[in-house]
Amino acid sequence: MNQQFLRLLRLLFIFLDLLMLNVSFAVDKFFYSSRIPELAMARYVNLWLAFNVAWMMAAWITTVYGQKSISSFETFSHKSLRAYIYFLALVMIYIVLFKQENMSRLFVMTVLLSVGLVFFVNRLLYLVIGQFVRNQDQFTRKVIIVGYNEVSKKLVQQLEEDILNTKIIGYCENEQEVHELSNYPIVGGLNNIIEVSKQYQANEIFSTIAPDANNGIYELMQEADQACIRFKLVPNFNLFTRLPVHVDYFGSLPVLSLRKEPLDDIANRIRKRIYDIFISSLVIIFILSWMIPLIGLLILLESKGPVFFVQMRSGKNNLPFRCIKFRSMRINKESNTTQARKGDVRVTRIGRFLRKTSLDEFPQFLNVFVGNMSVVGPRPHMLKHTDDYSEVIKKYMVRQFVKPGITGWAQINGFRGETRSVWDMEKRVEHDIWYLENWSLWLDTRIIFMTGYKIFVGDINAV
Fold it and tell me: Which residues of 87-106 are buried (b: 16+ CB within 10 A; e: fewer)?
């Protein structure tokens, strides 16, 4: 709906946000010019460039200017706030990594606050534009809905959320088909739809009744054209499947799938891969560089065997890969078939500490860096468990559509560690599929922070 208008809004706010960001920086720099020595001017030019790059990266990560984001004020505002938080973090990372601490702290704080203020003003402008559009008759859509059924009820909910002014006049349906009080009036039957549309000056008709179910719909299409009323057909996919479906298009061909998968889009996969490389690089350079020698020494002092435990696990598309961990058990023959349990005698003293704090998982950032794991995703299971549980749990293999992760949505919701029953695994799979269908970089970031919190306060499910 209203694709061109949404595209115009996207371009408008991309331009306004970048314009006001640069204006804020220039104005603040003018007022603080007495505090900025000439020799340090190059640093402030670099900071100005960093501000622009940081905002574009933050906007890209959060898809703040995406069509779905810009079509709703609430979504646009929420994603703008997330983007601003990313923007602050990226600017701070730039200042620390490039040792820009000598710049005026007051100037930096003023610019960051003023940028946040002008972004807030731009979001208020969004409300003004929306209100203006709603008050213009030429932008008003007057809609008649043909049929009163589950599809028409869902259609009404979507039309009510439309960014442009949509006036729903009511339904056209035969009285014997209506068995409840409708949220909009029944203004006519199926035999006088055009007359009712003209009476209420409707300019659009949405039919939730398919031509195959009622041959009169074919004639209605032609009559609507003759009456200069736009006719639109809303198909009922329950005729094909009783499961929820997601609609995509290959050119002009509609394609039904059982679920929405954001990571099926190559652009989202690139975003996630860049995110994974960035996070894993930081961990490898600043943490694993000293953690591996230190923990490796403690492991070797307590028990014989290698520092790392490398095990074949189920990866994306069910392809096995070599998953690396700090060894937390004594060498045993059951390591590839039996999960660790509370009080497991195989676990060493240092291993118990590593498992409790999740430090045993940190070498998996090497798996992330090379590309066979992600920072966030469904936890990789042993090959035997994948074979066993896929036989008894429906949709188990759906979790294999994405790369496994070091942490995941199931883990921060209490489904980590030993799976004592099939129910435990079912709930884990349920959470993994929810993550697959609702992925975003913001969700990944949230899961990472929640994982850090659980490590800090302790997790009763850790074994």
Answer: beebbeebbeeeebeebbee
Of 234, 258, 282, at which residue does a domain stop? 258
Q: Which residues contact 325 (CB under 8 A, 6 or more apart)?
A: 308, 309, 310, 311, 360, 361, 363, 364
Residue 48 in this model has a pLDDT that exceeds 80: yes
Cα–Cα distances in angstroms (integers) from residue 412 to residues 179, 339, 409, 415, in the given order: 45, 19, 6, 7
Domain end among 112, 134, 156: 134
CA 368, 372, 374, 379 dihedral sign is negative
Q: What is the pLDDT of residues 399-456, one digit of tens each?
A: 999 999 999 999 999 888 777 788 889 999 999 999 999 999 989 998 998 898 888 7
Residues 128 and 148 in one domain: no
Range of the domain at 217: 142-258
Instruction: Give pLDDT, residue 421.
Output: 84
Structure tokens at 377: 């995703």
**Alpha carbon 305 to its chain's center:** 42
